[in-house]
Design a protein that fits this description.
Order of helices and strands: EEEHEHEHEH
Strand order of the largest sheet: 1-2-3-4-5-6
Distance between the termini: 20 Å
Shape: globular
Helix content: 25-40%
């Protein structure tokens, strides 16, 4: 059963208790985010991941249009990744189709997620779930 944990104009966060998968789906409104909105979204994500002990997650970043500066990337490493208390995690990122956005998003994710956690990139939720549940 899918449980809605959080929803606002920028994203929604859900937890599927049966599959044990945490879902974070971003909306096109992320193009209007301020830096504080982005940080608040990620703090909310971190808190729910820790609360639900979610060791499997999908992050649908196809509609993530907030620009990643080097400062934001470092903040993510220091304030989000370093404070996720779950070990042995698998995170599946759903990536934008556009090649340039994909390159930018992959670079950000690779740098921001240098935590030893297992991360893979997919174009569909079905592929992502298959990998997470394997």
């Amino acid at each position: 059963m899918m449980k809605i944990l959080h929803k606002d104009q920028f994203s929604e966060m859900l937890f599927d208790e049966q599959k044990g998968i945490f879902y974070h789906n971003m909306f096109p409104e992320t193009k209007n985010m301020e830096e504080e909105d982005f940080k608040e979204m990620l703090i909310t994500w971190k808190n729910f991941v820790n609360l639900y002990k979610a060791d499997k997650a999908t992050i649908d970043s196809k509609n993530l249009f907030f620009p990643m500066t080097p400062e934001i990337q470092q903040w993510i490493v220091d304030e989000i990744n370093a404070k996720v208390t779950i070990e042995n995690t698998k995170t599946a990122f759903l990536m934008p189709e556009d090649f340039i956005l994909t390159l930018a998003a992959e670079q950000y994710i690779d740098e921001a997620n240098d935590t030893g956690r297992e991360t893979r990139y997919f174009s569909t939720i079905e592929e992502a779930e298959d990998w997470l549940l394997s």
